[in-house]
Amino acid sequence: MRSVQVTALDGPAAVSVADAPEPTPGPEDVLVEVRALGVSWPDLLQTKGEYQLKPALPFQLGVDFAGTVRSAPEGSGFSSGDHVACVLPYGGGAELVAVHQDSVFPLPSSTSFEQGAALPMNYLTAEFALGTRAGVQPGDTVLVNGAAGGVGTASIQVAKGMGARVVGVVSTEEKAAVAKEAGADETVLVDGFRDAVKELTGGKGVDVVVDVVGGDAMTDYLRCLGPLGRLLVIGFTGGSIPQVKVNRLLLNNIDVRGVGWGAYAMVRPGFMRAQWDRLVPMIESGAVNPPLGSVRPVDEITAVLADMDARKTLGKSVVVF
Ligand SMILES: NC(=O)c1ccc[n+]([C@@H]2O[C@H](COP(=O)([O-])OP(=O)(O)OC[C@H]3O[C@@H](n4cnc5c(N)ncnc54)[C@H](OP(=O)(O)O)[C@@H]3O)[C@@H](O)[C@H]2O)c1
Q: Which one of 55, 145, 249, 297 is most buried, by most CB atoms within 10 A?
């Protein structure tokens, strides 16, 4: 079968599609014929050996994927032919993948394989961040940066599904259009975002910041929070890990909350499925409808990862088998 292989930690250029033996499922595994594979920032970091998880070389890339069940354990709730989305720390990038039943989710009939491959990690992360960590309530205002990216668009849609008003922060007008299309009520440009947010909220500030970028701008994001506001630390695509002067938290009654979805969710049996079941009504209502960026054949995965590295990605990138 074809498999997306990382043989050296040299970034996207060292990723190739090669032949690999078919997997043998364990007693609690579902065997999935993969049709679409999501491409995410953690995939990119893994190609460089910069992710917290560092598999031994060579390894099979791939966090999010969707396809058809070939076989499933009795009592798993899945059977041959079901359409499913799945998530793994890595290893989902092949024509056939064996995955533990706790990491397999039923795809609603209206959802394509491409959209299914865009859903698990980003939307479950957004649901964990906004629900479990931030306790977003209807009527809250949520500010999302990197708002045209994978986690950004997912956060916009899940926040909208929770009844929030959502403002996206983006670096270009082209990305603003993507964030708006995803469901953001308003967008502001990275340049001057703090003043723009102040104006949009009548000086009150926002309830929650979803921060996937990190870096020096974090202090200005903290300044965007109103009283009892929460900044969610999700990623550092800007390249550097910021530091917080905690007197700022005391003076303004605000929180900085870490969001490590995989580390929490993947070791708690049933947690991800309960999250998925909370997302399904949002999928069915149309609030969650992943905006796909590039959809390309799997043989072009190197170019897709290189675009992400160059900050060119719009929406969620997917490759298909
Ligand atoms: N904590 C968790 O549980 C968890 C789970 C999943 C993912 N993540 C993390 O979330 C982050 C976002 O992932 P993603 O899949 O949404 O990535 P993505 O689709 O590439 O989007 C990232 C966004 O970051 C912004 N950005 C700012 N500076 C950048 C730079 N120098 N290079 C590239 N992008 C830059 C870009 O938006 P603008 O150009 O508009 O600024 C871009 O759209 C990553 O750090 C990932 O590891 C965390």
A: 145
**pLDDT given at position 313:** 86
Residue nearest to ligand 1 atom 33, measured at CA: 311
Which of 151, 169, 171, 188 has most ligand 1 atoms within 8 Å of its beta carbon, as the pocket-test mutant? 151
**Ligand 1 mean position, distance from CA 36 (Å):** 21
Distance from the alpha carbon of residue 151 to the mean position of ligand 1, in angstroms: 7
Q: Where are the domains of the chain?
A: 2-119+290-320, 122-262
Same fold, 2-119+290-320 and 122-262: yes
**CATH class of the domain at 122-262:** alpha beta
- The helix/strand/coil state of 308 is helix
User: Does the predicted model carry a pTM greater than 0.90?
Assistant: yes
Domain 2-119+290-320 CATH (choose: 3.30.1060.10, 3.30.470.10, 3.90.180.10, 3.90.420.10):
3.90.180.10
Ligand 1 centroid from CA 238, angstroms: 8
d(CA 244, CA 152) in angstroms, rounded, equals 22
Which one has a higher pLDDT value, 311 or 129?
Answer: 129
